[in-house]
Amino acid sequence: MSRPFELDALFQSLTALPGVGPRNAKLFEKLCGGPKVLDLLWHLPVDFIDRRFSPKISEAPEGCVATMEITVLDHIPNARRNQPYRVKVRDDSGVMSLTFFHAHKDWIEKQLPQGEQRIVSGKIEYYQGNPQMVHPDVAPLSERASLETVEAIYPLTAGLTNKVVRKAAVGALRFISTLPEWLEPEYKKRQKWDDWDVALKQTHEPENMQALLPEQSARQRLAYDELLANQLTLALVRHRQKRIGGRVYKCNGVLRSKMMTALPFSLTGAQERSLSEIDKDMHAPTRMLRLLQGDVGSGKTVVAAMAMLSAVETGAQAALMAPTEILARQHAESLKPWLETAGVRFVTLTGRDKGKDRALLLEQIQNGAAQIVIGTHALFQDDVAFADLGLAVIDEQHRFGVHQRLMLSAKGRGTDVLVMTATPIPRTLTLTAYGDMDVSRLDEKPPGRKPVETLLIPHEKLEDMIEGLARKIKEGGPNGPRVYWVCPLVEESEVLDLAAAEERFDILRYRFGRVGLVHGRMKPQDKDEVMARFAAGELDILVATTVIEVGVNVPEATLMVIEHAERFGLSQLHQLRGRVGRGGDQSYCFLVYTGPLGETAKERLSIMRQTEDGFLIAEKDLELRGAGDILGVKQSGLPAFRLADLSVHGELLAAARDDAQLIMDRDPELESERGKALKTLLYLFERDQAIQYLRSG
Ligand code: ADP
Ligand code: MG
């Protein structure tokens, strides 16, 4: 099956719309986040101007937008170029001027002939005590209706005016056609929702403030459609995964007990609980698809290791995949003593293994000599074959997509999947990103950690703070504190980010000497090298843009400085702060801010002072910023919604999840009437991949 033809009109290029041409198509694409007509239809108005208000001149309040019937009195052309051209007009209540800057005389004379009546529409302003309209829209009396409208106001970008965007949007509305209804009829009735096409048109014709609210009926319906497409996709993935039968591991935990003897600590309650949830999955005949969520330092690695040992004990292999080379090596390093004690053979495979070495590793993986394989996405490659991959553990999953998750597990038969993420995600968001998975949470830190002390530093005090740092580093000598220094996030510009970081780097290097710099544009090798020097204690300060590798572990680092902290989201601040406080020493986090702070920024910084609970912070973040911005969307890999706002539409998400579940129970191949309509929904949201999971293709 390919895309239903009803959708063709919506998938046309934006250039099919009036006023969109080769010159501004790129701007439109940037504005609405995609190249097709539908993208503009999903670009919803944020405000409107009501031009239906029609007061008398003498009664028109300043600042209001009005449409009025007037008679043209005189023209007062401008004497100099930089003066406006004025036209005096009147109605039976008074006189006002129409003001034009840089306008052509001929054009104005033609539009507003002396003595004639016209309709003008614009904003009433007072200039030297007299009412005026600057650059009003003008029409003959017969076209009154064309001006007396409600004009939707769209979010804009430099180079596109609302007039142009509105015109294109009105053009786009004409491409909307009736689509088969994919909503469950009872639910739709209960919600009192309109059809899809009606709802979409409505959102572009707001007539009052209510119409702009996300709680409004048409917007709810559209949000629900988007969430349903998301949940249905995940449900299809899950269904397919579970259809492939799982394995039943019969193990008595010998290897695990051996490993326990090498652990200098006992498991936390949360670790025990998560592990027993994993065990239950692994002992059951269905496949495990489980997400293990826990803050940095909550002890995910131990749990993963124990799970891998269960697989190994029954003769299967286990793989642990990390998003970067450096993390893969770090995992290998920390697992080594435990695996050795348990007598398990493991290898590490990353993109750097080449030639003969690589061939040897591949052989060990293929013949089963390697019982555990630790690596990067190099594990995906076609020539990597496992003897019998029973369990795939994927760390820091938000760097990978649902699809990659499938690719690794496809390397075995009925392979169990355990995904670990250090990003505490609010429950609602977990559903959208991992709706296909069961969730275990490590919500308790191992004992003995000192909380990180968080201080707010106004930018004016930055020098004093540096002074203090210099003293500490000097006093400490070789065992002095190690410092992460995160540089400001400059809006939308990696180049400016970098410039700021380089400048800070120069200043600090001049002052401290042993300072390194890492940023997103460096080659991975170079980045790894600087990080390694920092980890080894050859550098006191590591200056970084926000790209500090997720999860990198330098227990000796006890100081975190974040410049322009007010520009970061809560979850980001939390992630950054999580890089210190990993060793036994007291750690500090300095949030350097530049005032004046807005309400939200103030609240964010104060929450950072109050708590280190990642889950709580994530919930707050969602509340304060809306889902779109959480974690700085780009690096999060979480689905970005166009129409749904999860800080408002959380309940719809839960409903969509249940709906998707029901659909999978009743009609998993989407063959019924509603099923077919649901396929259209999936195409509408470009979930073509999900459709391939259907037997009927
Ligand atoms: P995560 O992967 O969740 O960031 P790790 O698994 O790397 O966390 O654990 C962080 C540190 O805490 C490691 O040094 C680990 O050995 C230690 N650790 C893990 N579990 C416990 C525990 N129950 N008690 C004490 N220390 C623990
Ligand atoms: Mg980790």
Secondary structure layout plus pairing:
Blueprint lengths: L24 H8 L4 H5 L5 E4 L14 E12 L8 E6 L4 E6 L4 H7 L5 E11 L2 E5 L2 E3 L4 H4 L2 E4 L8 H12 L11 H7 L4 H8 L13 H27 L10 H9 L6 H15 L5 E6 L5 H14 L3 E5 L3 H18 L3 E4 L5 H13 L4 E4 L13 E7 L6 H8 L6 E6 L5 H8 L3 E5 L10 E6 L3 H15 L5 E5 L7 H19 L2 E4 L5 H12 L5 E4 L12 E6 L7 H8 L10 E6 L5 H12 L3 H12 L7 H4 L9 H21 L6 H12 L3 H5 L5
Parallel strand pairs: 4-6, 9-14, 9-15, 10-12, 10-13, 11-12, 13-14, 16-21, 17-19, 17-20, 18-19, 20-21
Antiparallel strand pairs: 1-8, 2-3, 2-5, 3-4, 5-6, 5-7
Bound molecules: adenosine-5'-diphosphate (ADP) and magnesium ion (MG).
Adenosine-5'-diphosphate (ADP) binds next to α11.
Describe the overall structure.
This protein has a seven-stranded parallel beta sheet, sandwiched between helices. The protein has a six-stranded parallel beta sheet with strand order 16-21-20-17-19-18, with helices on both faces. Strands 2-3-4-6-5 form a five-stranded mixed beta barrel. The chain has 697 residues and is an alpha/beta fold. It has four domains: 5-48 and 154-212, no CATH class; 52-148, Nucleic acid-binding proteins (OB fold (Dihydrolipoamide Acetyltransferase, E2P), Beta Barrel); 254-442, P-loop containing nucleotide triphosphate hydrolases (Rossmann fold); 453-611, Rossmann fold (3-Layer(aba) Sandwich), CATH 3.40.50.300. The chain starts with 24 loop residues before the first helix and ends in a 5-residue tail after the last helix. Mean pLDDT is 88; it is low at 627-637. It binds adenosine-5'-diphosphate and magnesium ion. Magnesium ion binds at residues 300-301, 422, 551.
